[in-house]
Every structure is written in C-alpha cells, then in structure tokens.
Amino acid sequence: MIKKIFENEVLKIVLKDTRVRIVLFILSGYFLFSIIYYTFGIDDYLKKRNTYKEAEELFLEKEYADAIRTLGEIPDFKNTDELTNEIFPIMIDEIDHFLSNGNTFFQMNT
Questions:
Q1: Which of 11, 23, 58, 96 reaches 20 to 30 Å from 30, CA-CA?
Q2: What are 77-104's pLDDT values in tens digits?
Q3: Phi and psi for 85 in degrees, rounded to 5?
C-alpha cells in the first residue's frame, strides 16, 4: 500500500517542490509536538507549575490564606506539602499574636 502511494505521479510532483516539503515538515513537526505535549501531560505540568509559582508569590506577599488556598489546587505537585507546612506555623503565630493583644476575630471586620 505504501509503495502505491509513493508511485503516485501527483505525489511525486508535489514532493519535488521545496516549499511543499517545508510546509509538510512543519505540519508534521507541529502534529508530533502536539501529541507529545498532550499525551505526556506537559500542559498539566505547566499549569501546576504556574499555580505553584502563584502560591509562592502570595506567600512572599504574606497573603498566607490565599497561598494555602492556591496550594490546595495542586496537592500532588512538587514540594507543595513543604510550602504548606512552612505557611501554617506562620499563620498560627500571627493568629496567636493577634489574640494575645486582646483582639477578637469579631473586631477584624469592624
């Protein structure tokens, strides 16, 4: 069957044109890249990596609750547990400091 395809005169003429070969090469490369990208989960990895970076930025901006919420979206990624375990003690210390000054949670919204 493959031999019949390559014996086709139209195909021989088309494949002699350099521009057509370049376009076919680019299209086949794009097709292969797409298969590899989606089959091996590269797109999923990149999304998780961006979410993790967002959580790190929130952590550095001292937006701890938002950072924890963001990390909750990617529980199985990288060292999410380590960053979460780093954030929780800080949050507890801040709550303890807040309450030790005689504040209550009800005063936060007023």
A1: 11
A2: 888 999 999 999 999 998 888 888 777 6
A3: -70, -20
